[in-house]
């Protein structure tokens, strides 16, 4: 479960290129920069044999003239070069509005009410657009999401300062309409604002994982049972083509259901299908993004997405409330059966009595589904996709499993140190395709700074983990799939400091250890029992990905056969 992972996707919400009046009104707030040359193109333009480009097709002449498409050789967010008043316009831009950032930090053009949204129109997903903009503005720059000043951090040094060195100063969260609805006003861990209550709540959740036995044989047994069911379901298809996504999603959902409220389901169980249906509805609605999170006053108007989100949340809350009532009736404080029991036990503790309500317990359980299912299942699907592209990596993992585990028993957590290559494959998957390429927005809790730049209280900060995980200053050939980068010369696992798929600091994912356990056991058992192949006559999986709530692979087909 990734607590710093999910945030409503910022999508292109603006129409085609504005007319002359719109350009005169605000687009000419900064001098037009020179287009980047060949050496300035986004890192990763040179593709190696193990890499598939993340860029869309280069737009044609008409698209270039229109100016609403970005490609590695083109910057399309700038209008015609402004006149001689550009310097005074730039000064006015930097001084305009409450909360603007003084000093020399580069800033995208902005206009009243809209902020920088006109400059963010692009077919690229936000993480690629923000990375592309570093070639014009550098790795630390400002933009305005409507009226909200927002700093984008795209390098490890400044990200470390935001997340760790000044972690508490940047530990706040913005209040957004959709997340307030999703979490009953911020009663979860991931989206709740930083406070003493939040710290107590987070400690309770962490203790609940420990009470339940995070890393214990009980957890291991739950995950391995689900992994065996997944293998059996995939193998039942024979050697025919199969889309692995539905089976993987069901297996991971079953693990979370067992962890949260001790319910394990068959693939066709109505309650499991209900859980998957409402969770998918929430994910798809949030993924579309909404202007209401930038302009909250828009919620007074009819909104299909908010209506759909309300419906899915109502179904979710009905099911979880039913489970909570059942648990309270059979609850034994000294013998917690699952996460709900562990949370109830912590709720009764003297330190948090009266602070942690049933709403906090329910939203914590809901978050386990919203964050834990989507991120873990997506990471597994990315792992399978990259293994199909790199069959020699699959063979090496299987050879390691054969040597240290054998074929007769499943891999265990105790054998993790003996399986460094399996672990390094998972790390490389999370590096090259982070499911959360942009972390949940942070908010400055006080007047503070990043580097030499003063950051006023209330400023939002976006950490672009995609750019950090693809920075050639820290990663050799960052767009190539190379699990060996996580091994030292002796073949032992190492973790570079710029590898932060779960965030870091006070806002690091509370379920990081749980997620790593699931990924290790799922992939280890799958590769121990099965061979993954590309169906004859089909292309390998598309590695470009599509961004929703998380960065997902495009649907693909695979053949699953038992290892001989």
TrEMBL record:
Family annotation (InterPro entries): Cyt_P450 (IPR001128), Cyt_P450_CS (IPR017972), Cyt_P450_E_grp-I (IPR002401), Cyt_P450_sf (IPR036396)
Record-stated family: Belongs to the cytochrome P450 family.
Keywords: Endoplasmic reticulum, Heme, Iron, Lipid-binding, Membrane, Metal-binding, Microsome, Monooxygenase, Oxidoreductase, Steroidogenesis
Full protein name: Steroid 21-hydroxylase
Gene3D superfamilies membership: Cytochrome P450
Membrane topology: Peripheral membrane protein
Stretches for region Disordered: 1-43
GO molecular function annotation: heme binding; iron ion binding; lipid binding; steroid 17-alpha-monooxygenase activity; steroid 21-monooxygenase activity
